[in-house]
C-alpha cells in the first residue's frame, strides 16, 4: 500500500468525474473526519445524472422548478455512492471539497478544512440500499489505510456538523449497520488486498 506522500488522493477503482469545485486544505495534517451526506436530484429522484452535473457545474437548472435554487451554486463532495453501490470520485482526498458549508465540530469550524465528504444517493426518509452500506464501509476502510488519521477521528452526519441547517443523512440511515459493515470489512482479506 502506498504512503500518503506518494498517493495523489484518487482511488483507482472509483469512477472519476473531476469537479472544478475544490481548493487546497489549509493544514493537510488536520484531516481526520468523514462526513456522510445524502443527495438526490431532483429531490427524491435517483439515477438522473444530475448529481454529477451539479458537482461539475453543468446542471441545467431550468428544466425542473425544484432545481432553480441550485442555479450558480458551486459545491462538490469527494465521493458519491449511488443506489447500486457504484462509487464516483469528484475531488482528490488531499484537496478540500465544498460539501459541508457553514459547519463546526467541537471547537473547530469550517469542517471542509479537515474532512472528507461522502454523498449517498438517497433521502432522509427512504431506506438506503444494502449495496450502499457495503460500498461505504469498504470506502472508509480503504481511506483509513491511506490516511491513518481518519481512523482516529469521527464519522459524522452532515446534521452533526450543521445542526439546525442540515438533516442528512437522516433517520433512514442505519449507523449500527455501518458499524457492523466496518467491522466486517476490517476482517475481510479481500478488502485488505483490494487496490485503490
Characterize this entry briefly.
This protein has 196 residues and is an alpha/beta fold. The protein has helices at 50-55, 130-146, 149-152, 158-161, 175-186, 189-193, and strands at 15-16, 22-24, 33-39, 79-81, 87-89, 95-97, 104-105, 108-109, 115-121, 155-157. Strand 7 and strand 8 form a beta hairpin.
Question: What would you say this structure looks like, in words?
Answer:
This protein is of the alpha/beta class. The protein has one domain: Lysozyme-like. The chain has 6 helices and 10 strands; from the N terminus they run βββαββββββααβααα. The chain has helices spanning 50-55, 130-146, 149-152, 158-161, 175-186, 189-193; strands at residues 15-16, 22-24, 33-39, 79-81, 87-89, 95-97, 104-105, 108-109, 115-121, 155-157. The strands form 3 sheets. A 6-stranded mixed beta sheet has the order 1-5-4-9-3-10. Strands 2-6 form a two-stranded antiparallel sheet. Strands 7-8 form a two-stranded antiparallel sheet. A hairpin with a 5-residue loop joins strand 4 and strand 5. It starts with 14 loop residues before the first strand and ends with a helix. Mean pLDDT is 93; it is low at 189-196.
Amino acid at each position: 500500500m502506498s504512503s500518503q506522500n506518494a498517493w495523489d488522493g484518487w482511488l483507482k477503482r472509483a469512477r472519476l468525474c473531476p469537479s472544478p469545485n475544490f481548493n487546497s486544505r489549509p493544514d493537510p495534517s488536520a484531516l481526520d473526519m468523514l462526513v456522510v451526506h445524502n443527495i438526490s436530484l431532483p429531490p427524491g429522484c435517483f439515477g438522473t445524472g444530475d448529481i454529477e452535473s451539479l458537482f461539475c457545474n453543468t446542471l441545467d437548472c431550468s428544466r425542473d422548478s425544484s432545481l432553480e435554487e441550485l442555479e450558480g451554486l458551486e459545491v462538490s463532495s469527494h465521493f458519491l455512492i449511488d443506489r447500486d453501490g457504484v462509487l464516483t470520485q469528484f475531488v482528490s482526498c488531499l484537496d478540500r471539497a465544498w460539501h459541508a458549508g457553514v459547519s463546526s465540530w467541537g471547537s473547530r469550524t469550517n469542517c471542509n478544512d479537515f474532512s472528507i465528504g461522502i454523498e449517498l444517493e438517497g433521502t432522509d426518509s427512504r431506506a438506503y440500499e444494502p449495496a450502499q452500506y457495503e460500498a461505504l464501509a469498504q470506502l472508509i476502510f480503504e481511506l483509513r489505510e491511506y490516511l491513518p488519521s481518519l481512523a482516529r477521528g469521527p464519522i459524522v452526519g452532515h446534521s452533526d456538523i450543521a445542526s439546525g441547517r442540515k438533516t442528512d443523512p437522516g433517520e433512514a440511515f442505519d449507523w449500527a449497520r455501518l458499524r457492523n459493515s466496518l467491522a466486517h470489512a476490517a476482517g475481510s482479506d479481500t478488502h485488505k488486498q483490494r487496490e485503490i
